[in-house]
Amino acid sequence: MRLSRYFIPVLKEAPSDAQIVSHQLMLRAGLIRQEAAGIYAWLPLGHRVLRKIEQIVREEQDRAGAVEMLMPTIQLADLWRESGRYEDYGQEMLRIVDRHERDLLYGPTNEEMITEIFRAYCKSYKDVPKLLYHIQWKFRDERRPRFGVMRGREFLMKDAYSFDIDEDAARKAYNRMFVAYLNTFARMGLKSVPMRADTGPIGGDLSHEFIVLAETGESEVFCHQDLVEMGAPGADVDFDGDLQPLVDERTALYAATEEMHEADRFAAEVPEDKRLSARGIEVGHIFYFGTKYSEPMKALVTHPDGKERPVHMGSYGVGVSRLMGAIIEASHDENGIIWPESVAPFGVGIINMRSDDADTSAACDKAYEALTKAGKEPLLDDTGERAGAKFATMDLIGLPYQLVIGPRGLKEGKVELKVRRTGEKLELPLDEAIKRLAEG
Amino acid sequence: MRLSRYFIPVLKEAPSDAQIVSHQLMLRAGLIRQEAAGIYAWLPLGHRVLRKIEQIVREEQDRAGAVEMLMPTIQLADLWRESGRYEDYGQEMLRIVDRHERDLLYGPTNEEMITEIFRAYCKSYKDVPKLLYHIQWKFRDERRPRFGVMRGREFLMKDAYSFDIDEDAARKAYNRMFVAYLNTFARMGLKSVPMRADTGPIGGDLSHEFIVLAETGESEVFCHQDLVEMGAPGADVDFDGDLQPLVDERTALYAATEEMHEADRFAAEVPEDKRLSARGIEVGHIFYFGTKYSEPMKALVTHPDGKERPVHMGSYGVGVSRLMGAIIEASHDENGIIWPESVAPFGVGIINMRSDDADTSAACDKAYEALTKAGKEPLLDDTGERAGAKFATMDLIGLPYQLVIGPRGLKEGKVELKVRRTGEKLELPLDEAIKRLAEG
User: Fold this and answer.
1) Would you identify the family this protein belongs to, as annotated (chains A, B) (predicted)?
2) Which of the residues B2, B53, B67 would you substitute to probe the A interface, choosing the one with the greatest number of A C-beta atoms within 10 Å?
3) Which of A176, A439, B305, B433 is 20 to 30 A from B331, alpha carbon to alpha carbon?
């Protein structure tokens, strides 16, 4: 993309109501614009990152055997009356009345709707297991939306739902999502730790939050240091195989959010030099809830013995738009964002130091064409801005690499290649720089 | 994808309230499920087609130089009060009040919001032209939603907006979209004809609807036969060059929807053997509206002479979800849908005639692996259904090719390759069938 044809409205300063660094940087780097409290437009650069995050989530859901579909944003209130949640949900639910005085709502989550879909078509043990997901906009009317996309009202979420014959089978779906989440967040350059979460009145131990560690995280978390270093299982996992050992390995060690933390257990179970207390951000939540919805909504399947029983369900969420904030919280410096390559809006920024110089522009065009061809998605700053402003913008928007091309360097046959994360700079011939970037 | 792990709930009969063939087939083939009047869930197969249609629209917008972003679904009523449309819009607007008693609405279109975004950042003639688009869910509270996704309430739309210094410059953006639309619809196997549309009180001749011809179309249209055969300019168009000749060629001949039709002119301008009256479906609408929004909303740019003037705007819509219905209306037979290859949910259907036979299953697996590797996205029916039902389902869901593998054929070293559109069947060795499909 040529910046002269693009639209990145960077700001000198973030509005004073942006309290956390990811919110400030997203506004300053022209990723988002607030359109109402907790409601954002995704400007071109932010939209590109959002799509890359979404695509990683999608690929890992697919790999785990989940099947993608798409439910609408607007739902019938009657559906929620069936489960009993319409009244319970409270003011966070955005309630709507249509022209025919019918009660609707903007979906904050989709357990009811997916249960309705399942029960319409699936009646037998032969129809399970099913593991379905969608990536769709949700709305929760937060009393006090804040922290930018971290606690917005309209937000993009991946939610998956599993349907199984019994709890044992449901645990297999749960494990699939558990492992898929580890891989998902690792691909975004994040260190995530699964932490036991409150299951509420249903009980059981099948609920985990996935917490990303970041100095500026929203809440305090406590865990065994080894969990952080354990790494993700990776793309070679056999999702049809037994995933229980992978899950056990990661749930055997202590890990708890502030709400679930037990200081005594932490001290007793974790050696002192392994006790990590840090700040964290919740980016995923998986939950087995048995027949909580299938019972009242009569989603029954006939078992081999001929009897009908409610299907066992779980739900599995990832905060897709929230992840953008979490990634920035985990990866930035005083000059701006530092995107991991996997979610960077563009792979390389090319800075034309003198757009009015024909040789410089020709060299930039050459690099631009070659890197485009190599699939590196370069962003070429071909505007008439002064060099200092171009450097600052490029650091702010945080592309992994910068290729600086100017008339002085070209005379010596050199361009500058800068690594955004380390600040490392190399002077080398243009062809070599292109080759390095194309192969990197 | 293996059908045993997928979810295609086909129906024997369409519900009786489905009046048109695309609605019937979308329900029967398990593409969609109605969740409320005019509100649909996109089941896995339907979701795949929707994403392919969306991706073609996106690629052609990008090629034409439009920049993608994403605006939220929920908007502030105040924004629409600025333009004067909040009261005017009537009952089709879904009005919402949030927990703080603030007036919101579910966006039926985005002229106001994009104008607000433009005016926040762009102040000078140096900041134009801008051509921005997004693909997002919209809501129009139709009094009587009907015809499935053709006239739903929640629907997916691509809307682009152009910002230019004056009408001459705006016409260039208009022409870009005009040509992009021809290419977009052609890639989906549709014959589209641009027809002059009513510009309302603004006047001028810069508004066109893009009409797809289909026997079962919603309204009558009239045009010169040559327009239908003219074809699309194709991917080689230079969008930075002069597009006016391409546009002129397609607007010189008579073409009008029922509302704009003038029988006298039709008779006078079109030779009798070229007079085509047919049924059509509107799938796109482009519109230059000058300063209609920029004036009341004060989206001003400073001209080189130092004076501020309202920016000139246009808007350009494509009904993404509606296109699925239009494609089916234009391409089906008595047995089901016939997807054009570009939007088919899967490229090839492999039918295992005897899932309990090891050799047959091995041959199916071989074909499945090879075609997956070749990027043909096969769907393998590996279920225990009887052969007749498998044939019927495969015809109904309309994949372009079917590869039928059974024990009897294999004994003779043969499989059957069927072309869905023509019904043509070939018997040939498995390897040859794979090769044909992989290279096709």
Assistant:
1) Belongs to the class-II aminoacyl-tRNA synthetase family. ProS type 2 subfamily.
2) B67
3) B433
Specify whether domain B7-337 bears CATH 3.30.930.10: yes
Q: Where in chain A is the domain with CATH 3.40.50.800?
A: 346-439
Are residues A137 and B68, on separate chains, in Cβ contact within 8 Å?
A: no
Find which of B4, B69, B143 to mutate to test the A interface (most A CBs within 10 Å of its CB). Answer: B69
| Radius of gyration for the alpha carbons in chain B, expressed in angstroms and rounded | 24
Classify B346-439 by CATH class.
alpha beta
CA-CA distance, B221 to B207, in Å (whole number)? 16
Domain span(s) for CATH 3.30.930.10 in chain B: 7-337
Q: How far apart are the first and last CA of chain B?
A: 20
For residue B120, give both structure tokens. 């926040």
CB contact under 8 A, A41 and B74: no
Which residue from B238, B94, B132, B229 is spatially nearest to B179, judged by alpha carbons? Answer: B238
Q: Do A96 and B94 touch (CB under 8 A)?
A: yes
Residues A35, B6: C-beta atoms closer than 8 Å: no
Q: Which CATH class is domain A3-337?
A: alpha beta
Predicted complex ipTM exceeds 0.95: yes
3-state secondary structure of B265: helix
A-interface mutation test, from B7, B51, B52, B140, most A Cβ less than 10 A away? B7
CB contact under 8 Å between B70 and A36, yes or no, is no
pLDDT tens over chain A, length 440 residues:
999 999 999 999 888 889 999 999 999 999 999 999 999 999 999 999 999 999 999 999 999 999 999 999 999 999 999 999 999 999 999 999 999 999 999 999 999 999 999 999 999 999 999 999 999 999 999 999 989 999 999 999 999 999 999 999 999 999 999 999 999 999 999 999 999 888 766 666 689 999 999 887 888 999 999 999 998 999 999 999 999 999 999 999 999 999 999 999 999 999 999 999 999 999 999 999 999 999 999 999 999 999 999 999 999 999 999 999 999 999 999 999 999 999 999 999 999 999 999 999 999 999 999 999 999 999 999 999 999 999 999 999 999 999 999 999 999 999 999 999 999 999 999 999 999 999 97
